[in-house]
Design a protein that fits this description.
alpha+beta, Alpha-Beta Plaits, 8 helices, 20% helix, TrmE/GcvT-like, aminotransferase, transaminase activity, GcvT_C, methyltransferase
Length: 388
């Protein structure tokens, strides 16, 4: 990502590509709206349209509209599609009911996280795997390789979909004006095919903001009409277009991990406090099982580090990579993500720290910000949870 000013929120960082970034089906819309664009994971994406703080607050209080068409979609289909995914991923996807979605991960043979994913079961023998943009090619290659010997097909559908998200407390009312789908019956982490503004879409009640909302998978040619229809339907509700910068502060407040920050190949799901996604009791073998069993045992007895929340007492912003120190100045961990929190009104961060400093309220914890130790309060994640 581009470097922001020291006190401004930053969107996630990804390596720059050697080639010109790709544009989504909504590229012309973003330019017409005056968006600040950035190269993200090989895509030209909107960073912000105006004030990221205003966009963030719109999602918390009304609704925001996002272009997420850079995400990577992989279809796995065939009689043994569920068995393939049970072998390739850490979750138990073969038991997923049609119409349901599941958050899961794909790990390497050592238990390191290659990516975190959402998997939708579209039919008895058809699954849609959604990967992060920067890891889509890696996930596709891994699923293809791990699919050898299974009666299933792995298909690259990254060019078959555009993805829009409407997020925020007003999102059910806004989307409800454009579809006859049973939105009240669509529970969290479910998805169903339907029409939105006359266009076919997979309507999923998922998101990455900590708010209620929906993600709409559609044909690229339908993305622009859907964007305009949602914009018009939400005009009186305060819906605004939103970029990657506020998406990052929203997910940070909600304590949601970001690949490349909280999640890496040097991290197991148990290290990240997400061991619940690893189904060690599922039948058969799966990639990384042995190392993950060992990681589970370590996490239960002597975890090497714990992911915590930090709230700054001052105004300086902790950033990824900054050391976390104790009262003596000894390094006890490292910040993985940090930004000003529009909701809390103070800078916040997620960090991995030694277990003895992980309890909420631990005294003497600070972050070394360019040579000056700034005091922080240790808190449990998430920083923000919407009222249910």
């Amino acid at each position: 990502m581009t470097e922001d000013t020291p006190d401004a929120p930053r969107a996630p960082r990804t390596p720059r590509t050697a080639h010109a970034p790709r544009t989504t089906a909504l590229g012309a819309v973003h330019r017409a709206l005056g968006a600040t664009m950035t190269d993200f994971a090989g895509w030209s994406m909107p960073l912000r349209y105006g004030s990221e703080r205003a966009e963030h607050q719109a999602v918390r209080t009304a609704a925001g509209l996002f272009d997420l068409s850079h995400m990577g979609e992989v279809t796995v289909e065939g009689p043994a599609a569920g068995d393939l995914l049970d072998h390739a991923l850490v979750g138990r996807l073969g038991a997923l009911r049609v119409g349901r979605a599941r958050y899961t991960m794909i790990c390497d043979a050592n238990g390191g996280i290659l990516d975190d994913l959402i998997v939708y079961r579209l039919a008895d023998d058809t699954y849609l795997v959604v990967a992060n943009a920067a890891n889509a090619a890696t996930v596709l290659a891994a699923l293809t390789e791990r699919g050898a010997g299974f009666d299933a097909n792995v298909r690259d559908d990254r060019d078959a979909y555009a993805l829009l998200a409407v997020q925020g407390p007003a999102s059910p009312a806004i989307l409800g004006r454009l579809t006859d789908a049973d939105l009240p019956g669509l529970k969290y982490y479910t998805g169903l095919p339907g029409t939105v503004a006359g266009r076919r879409a997979l309507i999923a009640r998922t998101g990455y903001t900590g708010e209620d909302g929906f993600e709409l998978f559609c044909a690229p040619g339908d993305a622009e009409p859907l964007w305009h229809a949602l914009t018009e339907a939400g005009r009186d509700d305060g819906l605004v277009p939103c970029g990657l910068a506020c998406r990052d502060t929203l997910r940070l407040e909600a304590g949601m991990p970001l690949y490349g920050n909280e999640l890496t190949t040097a991290t197991t799901p148990f290290d990240a406090g997400l061991g619940r996604v690893v189904k060690l009791d599922k039948p058969g073998d799966f990639v990384g099982r042995g190392p993950l069993e060992a990681a589970a045992a370590r996490a239960a007895s002597h975890p090497p580090r714990t992911l915590v929340g930090l709230i700054a007492r001052g105004r300086r912003v902790p950033r990824s990579g900054y050391p976390v120190v104790d009262a003596s100045g000894a390094v006890i961990g490292e910040v993985t993500s940090g930004a000003p929190s529009p909701t809390l009104g103070r800078p916040i961060a997620m960090a991995y720290v030694s277990p003895e400093h992980a309890a909420p309220g631990t005294e003497g914890v600070g972050v070394d910000i360019r040579g000056t130790v700034e005091p922080h309060d240790v808190v449990a994640l998430p920083f923000y949870a919407r009222a249910t």
